[in-house]
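Researcher: Re-running this chain for the archive, since the previous output was lost when a drive failed. Same request as before.
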Amino acid sequence: MRSLKTLQIAAVFLLCMGVAAHAQINPFSKYRGPTLSKADLDEGSKAAARLLGDNPKPVGTVETWTGPKSGNRGTLTVERAYQRDGQPCRAVRSRVTYTSGTQRTFLLDACRVAGQWKLM
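Model: Regenerated structure tokens:
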């Protein structure tokens, strides 16, 4: 479960955050757009857990989330199921809509390695 939580947080980071830990090499270092709150991230993580979990959902399945205070919302959609090195994998499209109207979309690949879902 801890690896799934790590996967979820990493996925949301890639989608929405602009943390400049290493500004000289971080592609998000100059990002000034909207970001997600911790509550938003928690809701996105719950949606990812429903989508992947122990019994991953089939292609076409959509999970939604809404930030309880911010009103930001998103969807996670299984776009493709495939195998990589004998491990089950999913291409998941993440779409976030901020209350400002800004939208961000990313395609993420996750594979189940040693029983845990990991970003590839």
